[in-house]
């Protein structure tokens, strides 16, 4: 048996009644507070015996003792036997063996800490809680509290001598003697003129970049603020928004269906309220059209259904030369369908698919490079590659395609 357990054995035969008789009312109140913190049930039982030590009989005090032991270190709890709880006068229905009884564990452990604490106020309530009145009272109390006096009062006295920068004497070899006319001109020059002179002489560290380049590029004195002026931002002229696209979709659809000779470009850029069935019908009409050379659907909120319709159109159309579907909501599946259809089209020379809602992925970029290598007719391709491998392959393929086109024109 260890020394620690031997020390605990001497508390088995202690006379609890004698200890309670010697406690003062203050000590009994402190004992009640500790019992409330350990176990609310034990505290509630002992609350009615405050000031009456003899009320702690042999059936109650062993329960208090076991409560203290239950909150003692683990080794003490394992050593102490449960014969006290099961002794004469004990609580009914309790058996021996103190093995972390549920009765000794608080049942309100899930409550916030503020609700688990015992009410320690001794004054009776004066009324309901008024939060605004309480805050005003606390502010008033804080204003009425006298501030603590400084140990060393502040008098405003300045100690020591102020620092005076010594004058630097210019050596004789660094002194420059100018002509009297230049000396007089520099003596009476304004700050704006000195700023321009410093810029002309290349003293760009004395001014901002705007002042420096304005003085060099302008034939007049434009830096009226001087060298020591505060740098201010340029006032840019507001640029008005572009006017809306005036294209009439119904008329364009009729012209494409009738294969109008005068219609060579279909531009639906920035028209975001075009229904999907209308765009699908337009792509269907483009399959048999032989005069449209450019087809642009930039920023029309088109998705994969439109991309699939464009892919079907590319497989049958033999007159389209430029296709632009940038800034849309086309995913990798839709782009892959368009790229596969480009392989079957021999007239397309320009393809732009950049700035989609999401990055298409490595597989799509590899497919783009493969399409450019297998389609020598494409000489302009609009896409910003994120991987080095497809970017290098695409650049090499575009260089080869443009060289082939140049050789064909020379023939």
Automatic annotation (TrEMBL):
Localization of this protein: Cytoplasm, Cytoskeleton
InterPro entries: LRR_dom_sf, TMOD
Ranges of Gly residues composition bias in the record: 84-96
Keyword Cytoplasm found: yes
Domain of life: Eukaryota
Pfam families documented for this protein: Tropomodulin
Keyword terms, alphabetized: Cytoplasm, Cytoskeleton
GTP-binding listed as a keyword: no
Region called Disordered, residue ranges: 83-102
Entry protein name: Tropomodulin-4 isoform X1
Gene: TMOD4
């Amino acid at each position: 048996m260890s020394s620690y357990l031997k020390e605990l054995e001497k508390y088995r035969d202690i006379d609890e009644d004698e200890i309670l008789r010697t406690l003062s009312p203050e000590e009994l109140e402190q004992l009640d507070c500790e019992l409330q913190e350990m176990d609310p049930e034990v505290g509630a039982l002992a609350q009615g015996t405050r000031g009456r030590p003899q009320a702690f009989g042999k059936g109650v005090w062993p329960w208090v003792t076991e409560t203290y032991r239950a909150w003692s270190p683990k080794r003490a709890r394992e050593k102490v036997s449960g014969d006290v709880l099961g002794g004469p006068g004990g609580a009914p229905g309790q058996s021996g063996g103190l093995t972390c009884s549920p009765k000794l564990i608080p049942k309100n452990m899930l409550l916030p800490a503020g609700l688990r604490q015992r009410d320690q106020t001794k004054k009776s309530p004066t009324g309901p809680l008024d939060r605004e009145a309480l805050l005003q009272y606390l502010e008033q109390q804080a204003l009425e509290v006298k501030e603590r006096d400084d140990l060393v009062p502040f008098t405003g006295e300045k100690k020591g001598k102020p620092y005076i920068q010594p004058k630097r004497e210019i050596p004789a070899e660094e002194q420059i003697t100018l002509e009297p006319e230049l000396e007089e001109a520099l003596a009476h020059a304004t700050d704006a003129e000195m700023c321009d002179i410093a810029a002309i002489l290349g003293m760009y560290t004395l001014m901002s970049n705007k002042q420096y380049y304005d003085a060099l590029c302008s034939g007049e004195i434009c830096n009226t603020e001087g060298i020591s002026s505060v740098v201010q931002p340029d006032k840019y002229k507001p640029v008005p928004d572009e006017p809306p696209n005036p294209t009439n979709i119904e008329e364009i659809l009729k012209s494409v269906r009738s294969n109008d000779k005068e219609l060579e470009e279909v531009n639906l850029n920035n028209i975001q309220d075009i229904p999907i069935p209308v765009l699908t019908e337009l792509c269907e009409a483009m399959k048999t059209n032989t005069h449209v050379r450019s087809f642009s659907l930039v920023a029309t909120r088109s998705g994969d259904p439109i991309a699939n319709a464009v892919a079907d159109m590319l497989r049958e159309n033999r007159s389209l030369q430029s296709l632009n579907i940038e800034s849309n909501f086309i995913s990798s599946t839709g782009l892959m369908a368009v790229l596969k259809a480009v392989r079957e089209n021999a007239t397309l020379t320009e393809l732009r698919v950049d700035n989609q809602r999401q990055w298409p992925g490595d597989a799509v970029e590899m497919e783009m490079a493969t399409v450019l290598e297998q389609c020598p007719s494409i000489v302009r391709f609009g896409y910003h590659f994120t991987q080095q491998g497809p970017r290098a392959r695409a650049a090499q393929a575009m260089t080869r395609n443009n060289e082939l086109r140049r050789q064909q024109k020379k023939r």
